[in-house]
Design brief:
The chain is of the alpha+beta class. Helices cover 23% and strands 27% of the residues. A 6-stranded antiparallel sheet has the order 15-22-16-17-18-19. Strands 6-5-4-1-7 form a 5-stranded antiparallel sheet. α4 runs antiparallel to α5. It is globular and about 60 Å long.
């Protein structure tokens, strides 16, 4: 009887651990969050503030710069694919033959080296000239899906780029833009640009989306973070044949740059609620740093890609070595709602205020929080979307991981 009893206990424990691990890897889109998720509820302050107007300088920089990263950067991940173990979406390890094919394809055609180009559609920027995903540990909650190490970011239509290379098969171009590079985009997503394109973008007035979803007449989805030049009083987009007028819903766009206020940024943030998408893959959503990079473009503020770059780009307060209580006190006394970023390694959040108990509140795009099964197996509480939260997420409290906060408002100049 004792044996049967222990067998039953073991089976029950195994079942609980299995279910825990399974559901901790599944996006819990219906997770009940205790806080109001409408970001607009956290500010109705429409006081206009002036943000640093830094975006256009960076936006046009690929067409102005004279020095670029070595083209060998576009070969770094193909060679890493040869040296390290990466897996496809089915958990199969890539062969050395596949890695060699990617290397050969990436060596490319230098006839395209350092030629101006412009994006004619949104596209994923990838580290290899292929749409094959690269997972480090496909079954691991931190290194498996959705963390495809071959994808860097999503680049929007009408974005100036410097074309630095073309893949041997002609399907990809290595480009540099305001997010960095070179990264590979589909060749069909970019065309060569000329001096008239440069003069147009340099001197044009613009409109920008202020809400999502927004669609062009042909069904193309347009995202916040896109700029449309104005020509003959009409917004235009880059196409393979030049520039084409587009019709945009007037209540979903505004003249760029927009006046900044806590109310206006909260309205844009509310419309950007979406599923979590590492690297913004396929345009289905955004990850934590892309969310803020694009959220502030309508106001003319440049923000780099990557959470670590973002938190170090602006002046701030180093919080290493502080106790949890000290961190909360500093945040509550120094942070300015909708103008302060809070960072812990691998993740960045926007401070939006405090609750009635003095707990900091943040808006962020999050995949999940690390947790452990009853058998100490690492899993994740997978949230997989953009949320408003306090410092507590399920059984985890992120305040202990915070390393720095930074100020993006007028005093950041």
């Amino acid at each position: 009887m004792k044996i049967l009893k222990w067998m039953a206990i073991f089976a029950t424990g195994f079942g609980v651990a299995f279910l825990w691990a399974h559901f901790a890897r599944t996006p819990n889109y219906d997770l009940v969050l205790p806080l109001q998720q409408d970001v607009r509820a956290y500010s109705d302050d429409d006081t206009i503030k002036q943000l640093p107007q830094t975006f256009m300088e960076h936006f046009l920089s690929p067409w102005v710069k004279t020095e670029f990263p070595d083209i060998k950067v576009s070969l770094a991940m193909p060679y890493e694919l040869m040296e390290k173990q990466y897996y496809d979406g089915h958990g199969n390890k890539y062969s050395t033959q596949f890695a060699q094919y990617i290397i050969d394809n990436a060596i490319g055609d230098t006839n395209y080296e350092n030629k101006r180009g412009i994006m004619i559609m949104d596209a994923d920027m990838r580290a290899i000239p292929s749409d094959s995903p690269m997972y480090s540990k496909p079954s691991h909650p931190t290194f498996g899906h959705p963390f495809d190490y071959a994808i860097y970011s999503r680049v929007r239509m009408n974005t100036p780029v410097m074309i630095m290379n073309e893949s041997n098969d002609g399907n990809y171009m290595a480009v540099y833009n305001h997010q960095g590079g070179p990264y590979w985009v589909p060749s069909e997503s970019v065309r060569l640009a000329n001096d008239s394109d440069f003069e147009l973008l340099k001197n044009a007035k613009y409109v920008t989306p202020t809400a999502e979803p927004l669609y062009l007449e042909n069904g193309t989805k347009v995202h916040i973070g896109t700029l449309f030049p104005i020509q003959n009083d009409k917004p235009i987009r880059a196409t393979i044949d030049g520039w084409q007028p587009v019709n945009l819903q007037s209540n979903m766009v505004a003249k760029w740059p927009m006046p900044f206020s806590h109310k206006s940024i909260s309205e844009i943030a509310e419309s950007m609620h979406s599923p979590y998408a590492w690297g913004g893959i396929d345009g289905i959503g955004r990850d934590c740093s892309q969310l803020f990079m694009e959220m502030f473009i309508p106001f003319g503020l440049y923000m780099p890609r990557n959470s670590r770059n973002q938190i170090n780009y602006f002046p701030g307060i180093d919080m290493n070595g502080m106790s949890d209580a000290e961190k909360i006190e500093v945040i509550n006394t120094k942070a300015i709602p909708f103008e302060t970023l809070i960072y812990f390694p691998g993740h960045i959040m926007l401070y939006i205020g405090t609750d009635q108990d003095g707990d900091p509140l943040v808006y962020h795009a999050i995949w999940g929080m690390r947790r452990y099964t009853p058998f100490f197996q690492e899993t994740r509480l997978v949230i997989g979307k953009t949320i408003v939260s306090g410092t507590q997420l399920a059984e985890r409290n992120w305040i202990s991981m915070v390393r720095r906060m930074a100020f993006i408002g007028p005093h950041a100049e």
